[in-house]
């Protein structure tokens, strides 16, 4: 009896390990589309969001098994946009915030269907504003500069190509919630 149990347990273990595949692998292409909560540029009294923080990122898996079979590395691009408006004291200001960047992330799968990752973004932020009061346009200006951000996130795959996505960090928003599509 014991001689039969050992081969059966071995076959079950082998089947389970072969069916548990990483959710992000070398060669995978993933598109994230997110809606941000917590604008990172202009918040507070008298400010309102004219366009909520929106983000899109594209990532390619470039290396599997960095330190064990559950790890991988991805690189890609990032685009974020938000618009804010300040109204008070008879004047109004409108602000636009754009971030364009490159990202790299270390992925690690702790449980099936959940792709968890942490990464770094290096990018360029473009901020513009316009001031007006009634029928008068007082002027406009733009500013830009380099930016960086650390982030952590996760994608839960409902099937092989569609996932819910959440990222926490400093980018166009402090928290991004959205969808991910494996292409």
TrEMBL record:
Name this protein carries in UniProt: Outer membrane protein beta-barrel domain-containing protein
Lineage: Bacteria, Pseudomonadati, Bacteroidota, Bacteroidia, Marinilabiliales
Origin species: Tangfeifania diversioriginum
Keywords: Signal
Signal peptide feature range: 1-20
């Amino acid at each position: 009896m014991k001689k039969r149990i050992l081969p059966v347990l071995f076959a079950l273990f082998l089947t389970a390990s072969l069916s548990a595949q990483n959710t992000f692998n070398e060669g995978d292409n993933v598109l994230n589309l997110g809606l941000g909560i917590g604008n990172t540029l202009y918040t507070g009294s008298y400010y309102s969001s004219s366009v909520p923080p929106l983000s899109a990122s594209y990532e390619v898996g470039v290396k599997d098994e960095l330190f064990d079979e559950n790890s991988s590395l991805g690189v890609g691009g990032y685009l974020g946009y938000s618009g804010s408006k300040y109204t008070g004291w008879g004047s109004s200001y409108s602000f636009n915030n754009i971030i364009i960047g490159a990202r790299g992330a270390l992925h690690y799968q702790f449980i099936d269907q959940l792709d968890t990752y942490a990464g770094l973004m290096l990018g360029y932020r473009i901020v513009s504003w316009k001031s007006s009061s009634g029928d008068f346009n007082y002027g406009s200006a733009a500013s830009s500069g380099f930016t960086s951000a650390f982030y952590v996130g996760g994608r839960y795959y409902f099937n092989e190509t569609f996932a819910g996505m959440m990222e926490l960090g400093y980018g166009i928003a402090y928290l991004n919630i959205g969808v991910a599509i494996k292409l």
